[in-house]
Write a structure and sequence with these properties.
With about 230 residues, this protein is of the alpha+beta class. It is built from 4 helices and 15 strands. The protein has a single domain (about 25-230), classed as Fumarylacetoacetase-like, C-terminal domain (Fumarylacetoacetate hydrolase, domain 2, Alpha-Beta Complex). Strands 2-1-12-6-7 form a 5-stranded mixed sheet, covered by helices on one side. The longest helix is centred in the middle third of the chain and has 9 residues, at about 115-120. It binds manganese (II) ion. Manganese (II) ion (MN) binds next to loops.
Length: about 230
């Protein structure tokens, strides 16, 4: 068991700036069909939870990243997400300026102890036990938004995840309830955004469980892909 694999700096394919992992912000329930499949109410503003740095593992875009199946769950769910790497300090960022704070885009998986999350939700308790465990946030390499053809905000990127070669999640980031710009603007009203902060922007429909031995492929258009083997 090699539980903590936090990278010392992020692997950014198109920036010479070295970003050290900082906070991991995650947006909950940000695609309509996923909100429906989870039986959640709609909302007027995004909601967030966080993962510690120790949740991070980074792939190199080609080799498979090993992720340990965590203890205390029988239902480890994948959630493929577009991940935004913040490049500079930002507070009270207007929506129109949000793209200036994005230094990198990457693919990530928000692993979730779904059985635990359900219990916590029923008891109105915080989500840490279901979301903030070690290796629960693997990410691929980051590239600059200018590197992709459809980099205009709001982004329209195809996002998908397969398990053992079978597609389980397939959607487009245009289906987000709150856009990347809206999320950055909203988040920056509550926190001082810092270089190295990550924002997981929510998962589309099709979440489900994985088991030791499964291999996941997470893809978003031209972004470097993320391959994960559950061990
Ligand atoms: Mn998520």
């Amino acid at each position: 068991m090699d539980k903590v694999k936090t990278p010392l700096k992020f692997f950014h394919k198109s920036s010479s700036v070295e970003y050290r992992p900082s906070r991991v912000f995650c947006v909950g329930a940000n695609y309509k069909k996923h909100v429906e499949e989870m039986g959640l109410p709609g909302r007027e503003s995004p909601f967030y939870f966080m993962k510690p740095r120790e949740a991070l593992v980074q792939g190199d875009g080609s080799s498979v990243v090993g992720v340990d199946y965590p203890p205390q769950t029988k239902e480890l769910d994948y959630e493929v997400e577009l991940v935004v790497l913040i490049g500079k300090n930002g507070s009270m960022v207007p929506k129109e300026k949000a793209s200036e704070f994005v230094s990198g885009l990457g693919v990530g998986i928000d692993f979730t102890r779904r059985d635990i999350q359900r219990k916590l939700r029923d008891k109105n308790q915080p989500w840490e036990l279901s979301k903030a465990f070690e290796q629960s946030a693997p990410v691929g390499p980051f590239i600059s938004p200018e590197e992709i053809s459809s980099s205009i905000f709001p982004m329209e990127l195809n996002i998908s995840l397969s398990v053992n070669g079978i597609i389980k999640q397939q959607a487009n980031t245009r289906d987000m309830i709150f856009s990347v710009s809206e999320i950055i603007s909203d988040l920056s009203a509550f926190f001082m955004l810092l270089p190295g902060d990550l924002v997981f922007t929510g998962t589309p429909q099709g979440v489900g469980p994985v088991f030791p031995g499964d291999v996941l492929e997470a893809k978003i258009d031209e972004l470097p892909c993320l391959s994960v083997a559950i061990q």
